[in-house]
Amino acid sequence: MDLFTRKTQKLPPPEHIAIIMDGNGRWAKKRGLPRTAGHAAGAETFRRIATYCRSIGVKYLTVYAFSTENWKRSREEVECIMALFEKYLHEAIDEMEQDHIRLKVLGDLSRISPELRALIERTAEISTHYDGFQANVCINYGGRDEIVHAARRFAAQCAAGEKKPEELTEEAFGGLLYTAGIPDPELIIRPSGEERVSNFLLWQSAYSEYYFTDVLWPDFDERELDRAIAAYHKRDRRFGGVKK
Fold this sequence. Notes:
The structure is a single chain. By secondary structure, the chain is an alpha/beta fold. Helices cover 44% and strands 14% of the residues. It is built from eight helices and six strands; from the N terminus they run αβααβαβαβααββα. β3 (102-106), α5 and β4 (134-141) form a beta-alpha-beta unit. α4 (75-99) packs parallel to α5 (114-127).
């Protein structure tokens, strides 16, 4: 452990960290490998970073794994990502029961295969038995799509006479989102050099702090996460108020 890591470990981590896992394809291209190799490397990075987050006291880790727009990619690449996710879920089931961790999948699951949905339901059932670190994986997720789904749910409740339009508040609307019951992320990290939100947690990120780095996701490590946490602690979070 180097001096930088020892210093940053004294800083309390954010309760909820979210990460846009970006740069897998470019990582593979730089090495003359197929994009699928980049996704495999990125999956291992997620596993390592999730373990590290849990060890330093992070309560929630949310990662952007597959967006509603990613279906536009080649069939081979989409199938690779889904196969990696299925493999991870199979392995995660044993780890969840052994380490008492929770796993939640966020997104529109209607386009996911029945076999994968069954695994997702299994992990959701296991998660109800534990109260500890929670990893959230966004699959077929889009921030705008999530808001539209929530709006439709509330409209349906109104049409059924269960709710009245004037009863809609920010808190009530938040309870209709995929992230219902999960606190908003304090820190959102995007590796790979891109500096945009890419339709990720649009509602939840209203007051999140962002950390951008040129490091490609497969090369993202514990030290880089420490840097992000250190940068977070330098921010002045006023939530629209005035500094005292």
